[in-house]
Amino acid sequence: MSATLTRTSRKARKPPICIREGSVEVKIYVTPETVDGVIYEQFTLCYYLGSKRIRQKFSDLEEAKKEAQVAALKMSNAEHDALKLSSSDRAVYVQCLDRLRPLGLPLGDAVADYVAAVTKLPPGASLADAVADYAKRHPANMTRKTVAEAVAEMINDRRTAGCSVAHMRDLENRLGRFADAFQVPIASLSAPMVRDYLRTLAREDGVPVTNRTRRNVQRIVTSLFHFCRKQRFVTRELVDEIAEIESPKMEAVETGVFTPEQLRKMLFSAPDDIRAALAIGAFCGLRTAELARLDWSEVQLAERVIIIGADKAKTASRRTVPISDNCAAWLAPLVRKEGKVSPAPTDRAMNHRFARSAAKQGVVWVKNGLRHSFCSYQLAVTRDAARVANEAGNSPAMLHKNYKALVTEAQGKDWFSILPALADDVIPLPLAVSA
Asked: H or E element: which one contains 129?
């Protein structure tokens, strides 16, 4: 114990070893350490490099001296270079220090940050330009929102405005995926980022989506940015850039329709619970989503009309759809006072029911085929685009663009003459003459 105390006191009295280079002095302190009662020699090199304190430990004194000599030489050279500054250089140096003093930033750090920033800029661009562009895109009065927060606010705004269930479901689905893809502030997005997102859109199975789907997503995303501009989440310049993204070209897709014979097979073989929805889709042209939400209380068979409420229409616009004579004949034995017309919980599930039933008769199910067929055959029979567009809840321009298939008037008349089989003791009523 006494030996340990003697060594410890002797260690405390040892002066540091000084290594000099010119006017620069670097000190080595003798700092032994005791481990399990055994004292080990250790030397600590300590000096300042600028405002930063450097401490290095060595177990060998000669190694410590060599490192101290190198450090002293570096510091001496730096001091010598500083002494070679001209009067104008020293004035600039002092001026730089004065400018940095309010920021509390050392000159060396400021120069390092500047070099790091400038090397990342494209040729011809200055750091001032980059800062000005950033300030323009992130004004002080702009509210910071993530993409997910902005999407939530837009959806809540549209729901409060009374948009249809179908429209809200579309927004939640498409914008939800957009928010998942960009978990960042919405103001940090750019047109190239959104363009790349649209180009790489794919279904859950990895198959790329159609250009029509890309256009629909682009329209909704653009609406999101317009909403965010009004809420001061993004700048007008960013909205303009997003709006200028070129829309993908529409593929030339031939409208698919069913033939009258295919419809006969499907109607006569369909289970009772889906036959009514099948007939309404074929002879009244309701959208699949409208069929899935249709209630029997909205099917007014006596007045020969179906009421499509604004909350159930895709366009959030109320309309009445005439029930054709042959459709009334199919509905008569199935009609109820209330309850869902479709037994399926969703339009997708209902489509699957239709497809399975059609497949049993060797008919390949065509997506939106009932509505396409109605519009095409009704247009061929009536030759009145305005009337058909009104019944279908569309515009004449969209009708000609999307639903005008190559069918004849004779095929149209055949389509609207498809009637259910009657029992021998039933006398059929005469069909009304179409206007």
From this structure: helix 127-137
